Amino acid sequence: MRAVNGQARRPTSRRQTNVGGPLKDIRAAKHGGTQNSVTRIVIHGTVSPCQRGGAVNVAHYFQTPGAGGSAHYVVDPGEVVRCLAETTVAYHAPPNTGTIGVELCDPQKGAASRWGDDDHEAMLRLAADLVRRIAQRWDVPLRRLTVADVKAGKRGICGHVDVSKAFHQSDHTDPGDAFPWGHFMALVCGETPKAAKPAPTPAKSEPEETMPEIVSLGLEDHIVVPAGVDYQPWWTAEWKDTAGWHPAGGQSIAPTVDVWADLTAHVTLTGLVPGEAVRVGLTRHLADGTVVDIAWPNGQLSVVHADADGRAEVDLNGHVKLSATTRGRVTVRHDSVNEVTLDQSSLFKGILHRYQ
Ligand SMILES: [Zn+2]
After folding, report:
1. How far apart are CA 291 and CA 326, in angstroms?
2. What is the CA(11)–ligand 1 centre distance, in A?
C-alpha cells in the first residue's frame, strides 16, 4: 500500500523555456526505469561547441543506439531540447535514480572567460530558467550542493564533478572549473546581477499571462494518513494553460508568479472511530514545507466528526494569495488508533488569477 502518491508538483507558468517555440523532444535511446522523486539536478558540459543547433546535435547523438549515456535536457544558446521525461531515469551521472541531468553545450576547454561571451550567457539564462522550473516541479531547494552534501543525499543543484567525487562511479569533471557557479545560481534564483546584459530571450516569448490557470489534483489510489501529525497528501495532478492539460503531481499548488488562488478541496476520510474528530484545512507553506499559515478556514483547521461508519467528509473553499514562495496545500490531522485513509474520491483544485 502506498503511503504517498504522485511525484512532483506541477508548474503553473505557461512561459515557454525555448526561444519563440515549444520545447523540442528528441528521445534518448539509453535510459532506466521510472523515478518518482528528485534529489538533485546535475549540470553537465557536453564537450561540444557552444552554438545554436548544438543541443539538437547532442540530442541526436543520444538518440543513436550506440550512445553511451543520456540526459533529460540539452541546452544551447538558442533552445532547450528534452530527451527524456523527468520521470524517466537518465544515464548521466551515476547513481542516476532520483536525479535530473541538464547538459550545457560547452567544449570544456579554452579560456575561462568563454563563459562570459554572449552565447554562453544566453545558454546560462535558458539553463537557469529550466533548472528553476525543474526545481519547482519537484520541490528541490534552489541551492548548490557541495560534494559532502551530495554524498549525504541532500537535495539541490550540483555539477557532474560533485557526483563523481561523492560516489566515485564516474570520473567526469564537467561542467569544469571555469563554470560560473555564482552567476548561474543567481540566475536560477531569479536575481538580476548588476550590469547584466539584456536577456537574449525576445519579449514575444514571454507573453502576458491573461488567462486563469487551472490546477486539478486527485488521487490514483487511497492514501493512508499517519496519526498525530499535520499531514499534507501528495496528489496526482493535471494543470492547464493555453496549450492544454499537462500531467504532474505533488503536495502543493505552487505558482511561479503572484496569484490570487480560488482553492477548493473535497476531503473524504474513512476508517475513523465513529464520532471521532479529525482536522482539515487549506494551508500555505514555504518551498521547504514550513507552514506559513492556515489559509482556510479562519486560521485554524476545521474540525469534523466521523459518522457512524467512521467516515468524515469536508468541503473547503478559500480565496488566498499564493506566490513563487508561498504555496497552497491541504492539511489533514487525526489522532485515531485506526488506520485512516484519504479516499480516492478526494480532490484539490485551484484556479489561479495573476495580478501585478
Ligand atoms: Zn557529465
Report:
1. 9
2. 26
Asked whether 131 and 145 are in contact (CB, 8 A), the reply is no
Q: Are 40 and 97 in contact (CB under 8 A)?
A: no
Q: How far is the CA of 44 from the centre of ligand 1 (A)?
A: 4
- Give 263-317 pLDDT, tens digit per residue: 999 999 999 999 999 999 999 998 778 888 888 777 889 899 999 999 999 999 8
10 CA from centroid of ligand 1 (Å): 27
Mean pLDDT is lowest, of 86-95, 145-154, 208-217, for: 208-217
Cβ neighbours of 16 (radius 10 Å) = 18
Mean pLDDT, the chain, whole residue set:
84
- Give the distance (Å) from ligand 1 centre to CA of residue 46: 7
Q: Over the stretch 326-350, which tens digit does the pLDDT of each residue have?
A: 899 999 999 999 999 999 889 999 8
- The last residue of one of the domains, among 170, 205, 240, is 205
**29-57 mean pLDDT:** 95
Q: What is the dihedral of CA 146, 152, 157, 161, to 10 degrees?
A: 60
Where in the sequence is the domain holding 61, given as residue range(s)? 24-205
Residue 204 has pLDDT above 50, yes or no: no
Question: HSE of 48 in the Cβ direction (CA atoms, 13 Å)?
Answer: 19
- CA dist., res. 291 & res. 12, Å (int): 21
Residue ranges in the chain assigned as alpha helix (H): 54-63, 118-138, 147-151, 160-167, 181-188
Give dist(CA 106, CA 137) in Å, integer.
Answer: 26
Which of 142, 170, 205 terminates a domain? The answer is 205
- pLDDT reading at 83 higher than 90: yes
- Residue 294 to residue 242: CA distance in whole angstroms: 31
- Where residue 197 sits, what CATH number does that domain have? 3.40.80.10
CA 45–ligand 1 middle distance (angstroms): 6
In a domain, residue 312? The reply is yes
Are 175 and 253 within one domain? Answer: no
Say what angle helices 181-188 and 118-138 make with each other, to 10 degrees. 50
**218 in the same domain as 201:** no
Reply yes or no on whether the pLDDT at 15 is more than 80. no
Residues 137 and 232 in one domain: no
